[in-house]
Design a protein that fits this description.
Layout: H1 2-8, H2 11-28, H3 30-46, H4 50-72, H5 77-106
Helix pairs in contact: 1-2, 1-5, 2-4, 3-4, 4-5
Length: 110
């Protein structure tokens, strides 16, 4: 949705997508980020997976900052596109790398 709105160039579509993200971020993404930051990432750091931890924390920080920008500048197509792209890439990274490595190292019996 966000990528299509950003690509459309329509200030209305961009604004609506930005407002939706800003409204949903605290309920949908922030709790997920905090769960990882408090639970999973310290465990991964303890087994030497510092690069994964750093990347995850960096991407969480960048997504939070982009969300703040969207809340204050809801018609900025570039910010909306950056948020959309980073969120897509972050989810893929978690699915393909972070969670796979966590499962293998932290929960090998599963």
């Amino acid at each position: 949705m966000a990528r299509f709105a950003a690509d459309s160039g329509s200030p209305e579509a961009i604004g609506q997508a930005a407002r939706t993200i800003a409204e949903q971020f605290p309920r949908a993404l922030e709790p997920h980020f905090q769960d990882e930051e408090v639970g999973l990432l310290p465990q991964l750091a303890a087994v030497g997976q510092n690069a994964l931890v750093v990347r995850t924390l960096d991407e969480h920080a960048r997504l939070r900052e982009l969300n703040r920008k969207l809340a204050t500048e809801p018609t900025d197509a570039a910010t909306l596109l950056a948020f959309s792209t980073l969120l897509h890439d972050h989810v893929r990274f978690e699915e393909r790398e972070l969670f796979e490595i966590a499962q293998t190292l932290l929960y090998p019996e599963h």
